[in-house]
Amino acid sequence: MKIIEYSFLAFFLLLPLVLADLRVGFYNATCPQAESIIQKVVQKQFATDSSITGGLLRMHFHDCFVRGCDASILIDSTPKKPSEKSAGPNLTVRGFELIDEAKKSLEAACPSTVSCADIITLATRDSVVLAGGQSYAAPTGRRDGLVSNPDDVNLPGPTFSVSEALQSFTAKGLTLNDMVTLLGAHTVGLVHCNFFEDRLSDFQGTGSPDPSMDPALVAKLSKLCAAGKNPTTFLDQNTSSTFDNQYYNQLLLKRGILQIDQELASDNSTTGIVSGFASNGVRFSQSFATAILKMGSLQVLVGNAGEIRKNCRVFNPK
């Protein structure tokens, strides 16, 4: 496992004050093996499917950007009560079984102690490290939410402009640098053809491919998508399974898959950040650790708020 050490003291001084409600080692007394239990489950899954890193990163993002990091994305829909899972952007979110397995092991070791929200946070961190990303200490102490409503799901989409996407991020207290950094998670992400097919042949109704996409990539993806059944491709076509800065280098080569990704390289407000990360992998890794911890602190429930679910897919019985 690749771990890059650096000064955590200086690192945590940069984090928002909201993290005062969370702390590293929150479960040291109540469930000391909690983090190792989660890590083992992630290691097992990663050994057979390294793309799980992208899946967990997407789950974490989609959870935090709706009602805050409260595991509301994990609640199953029922015929009478739909949940966030039934919202369009969440239909392709994956990794739920991994969370279930971790929760089952944690309930056996220390019942009703570790929240599903913290499982998502820690599993995501562990998967990033396994993929070659920088290790970071993740504060815990989140509690699980009591609401999961598909109407609350309003996420930045793949065809957003940089300015439109930034509005979504700033509404959550995140900066332009945070946005460009967190989109770097696409370095290990997968995407279905329906999210980018318009760029291949009829971009914005022009009847032609998106001129900002490398023609060789257009040809490759057109062949893939023509096969039918909405297949997937990697968002980073170079080092697809490694958490590194190559996503940004691909953008500079006009090889971004999603429209929002490619626009990062051409928009005046973000092109410098993209170039900086493309030329300095360590800078990206450190920026990512800071940004994902900041995102992971969004609107968290702590103390006596919310609950600690016994089953991550359903609210506790009243």
Automatic annotation (TrEMBL):
PROSITE patterns: PEROXIDASE_1, PEROXIDASE_2, PEROXIDASE_4. Substrate binds at P156. The lineage of its organism: Eukaryota, Viridiplantae, Streptophyta, Embryophyta, Tracheophyta. Residues 1-20 form the signal peptide. Heme b binds at H186. The record marks R58 as: Transition state stabilizer. SUPFAM superfamilies: Heme-dependent peroxidases. Ca(2+) 1 binds at D63, V66, G68, D70, S72, E84. Residues 21-316 form the Plant heme peroxidase family profile domain. GO terms for biological process: hydrogen peroxide catabolic process; response to oxidative stress. Binds 2 calcium ions per subunit. Binds 1 heme b (iron(II)-protoporphyrin IX) group per subunit. Disulfide bonds join C31-C110, C64-C69, C116-C312, C193-C225. Its EC number is 1.11.1.7. Ca(2+) 2 binds at T187, D236, T239, D244. This is Peroxidase. Pfam families: peroxidase. It catalyses: 2 a phenolic donor + H2O2 = 2 a phenolic radical donor + 2 H2O. Removal of H(2)O(2), oxidation of toxic reductants, biosynthesis and degradation of lignin, suberization, auxin catabolism, response to environmental stresses such as wounding, pathogen attack and oxidative stress. These functions might be dependent on each isozyme/isoform in each plant tissue. The active site is at H62. One of its GO terms (molecular function) is metal ion binding.
